[in-house]
Write a structure and sequence with these properties.
single chain, Aspartate Aminotransferase, domain 2, seven-stranded mixed beta sheet, four-stranded mixed beta sheet, disordered C terminus
Length: 417
């Protein structure tokens, strides 16, 4: 069969099969206007709870000024080439030094993109004789990185320390024969359910097992810990994290990411990560913009404090009204309901079209069948009035779901037009 014929005759995959009715609305929606808590969707004003602009830096005047001036001074082409050849600068190295200091590590390495950086880092760290052990709810970048691994890999049920120990026992027996090492991978904050990885318990296992710990802290950096250095700082085990990953795509409101850890390990990655060696260097406006963002939230905790004022008001208010927020202990605020995918679609339509609330919807297979998750992402841009309005509307949606109203309603035929 011709490759393209096979693709064209398929249902386009678990999400693509719904593209005819969902494209542009449920999938690939177009939010317009300046990034913030209030934007436009299909010409209507909406209160947005689905952007990871945690600290509200996307449109901070100093950030916008730095971005604009850097683009004017350097353009988007500079520096040309990969870092190893012609794409390095004193500014790239300055950002790496400051990031390493911020997350309490010896050295750091900039990544053009977080996702590909994570995949490539895992590929570089693990050889055929090594064993990877990872949490079942790890982000796709971890899963894809581990899938590239040519050696053994074990997955343990989410945050289940007893099962992790079982995997470590099995991994230990293997590396005793192969002479390899063990890498445990997890997240600082899990982006869907909002619960933190059990980093303290995992680090404690180092007393019994010989392994290294790699933590994806995309949702933790800037939001967790006394200084914003992430979930490891929050749990008092930052020094027990051997490889730390942070992204610029969330609290930094930018793009790219970085790895931080032991100086010699970072040096090894700098000279061996294919995604960085064979890719163009991070453009100068992004480097200078990320330096400004880091400066702002390192020197001013008011951004993080405002974020947590909104987080606490939203989560406590929803819980007081009887909503199920699962086990979140981070800014990520999932709200769980019972219902079918059809009811979920109608609930989201109601929220967006009638109440002006834009939030993300998560259904099976990300959550179990019969479960609907509406994920809210609080930011420092939100207000307590936004919180109150949202809780009031969610109470109405909850009542409608319970009454079966969304079963009776029909999804608008022109929703994706």
């Amino acid at each position: 069969m011709d490759l393209f014929d096979k693709i064209k005759s398929s249902n386009l995959g678990p999400l693509g099969q719904y593209s005819d009715i969902g494209h542009g609305y449920f999938f690939f929606p177009k939010l317009e206007g300046e990034i913030g808590s209030r934007m436009k969707f299909r010409g209507k004003d909406v209160l947005v709870w689905s952007l990871n602009n945690y600290l509200g830096l996307a449109n901070h005047p100093e950030v916008r000024k730095t971005d604009a001036e850097a683009a004017k001074d350097w353009g988007l082409s500079s520096p040309m080439g990969a870092r190893m050849l012609t794409g390095n600068s004193v500014w790239h190295e300055k950002l790496e030094r400051q990031l390493a200091t911020f997350v309490q590590k010896e050295d750091a390495l900039l990544l053009n993109y977080g996702y590909q950086g994570m995949v490539s880092a895992i590929d570089s760290l693990l050889g055929r004789n090594d064993v990877a052990v990872y949490d079942s709810e790890s982000h796709a970048c971890i899963v894809d990185g581990v899938r590239m691994h040519l050696g053994k890999r074990f997955v343990y049920p989410h945050n289940n320390i007893e099962k992790l120990q079982v995997s470590l026992e099995r991994a230990t027996k293997i590396v005793e024969q192969t002479g390899g090492g063990i890498l445990v991978l997890t997240e600082g904050v899990f982006g869907m359910a909002g619960d933190q990885g059990k980093l303290r318990e995992i680090v404690e296992l180092k007393k019994k097992y010989d392994f290294r710990l790699f933590v994806d802290d995309a949702h933790g950096i800037g939001t967790m810990g006394s200084t914003g250095a992430g979930a490891g700082e929050e749990q008092g085990v930052q020094d027990g994290i051997d490889i730390y990953f942070g992204t610029f795509a969330k609290a930094f409101a930018s793009i790219g990411g970085f790895l931080a850890g032991d100086e010699k390990v970072i040096k090894f990655l700098r000279y061996n990560m294919r995604s960085q060696i064979f890719a163009k260097s991070m453009p100068m406006p992004l480097v200078l913009g990320n330096l400004k963002r880091l400066e702002l939230f390192r020197n001013n905790l008011s951004f993080k404090n405002k974020l947590w004022e909104i987080v606490n008001a939203l989560q406590s208010g929803l819980k007081k009204e009887g909503f199920d927020l699962g086990k979140t202990n981070s800014p990520v605020s999932p709200v769980f309901f019972k219902g079918s995918p059809f009811e979920a679609a109608n609930a989201v339509l109601d929220l967006r079209e009638n109440y002006g609330i834009f939030c993300s919807i998560v259904i099976y297979p990300v959550v179990p069948k019969g479960v609907i998750m509406l994920r809210l992402i609080p930011t420092a841009d939100h207000t307590l009035e936004d919180v109150k309005y949202t809780i009031d509307i969610f109470k109405k949606v909850k009542d409608k779901l319970a009454a079966g109203q969304y079963v009776k309603e029909k999804i608008a035929a022109d929703v994706a037009e």
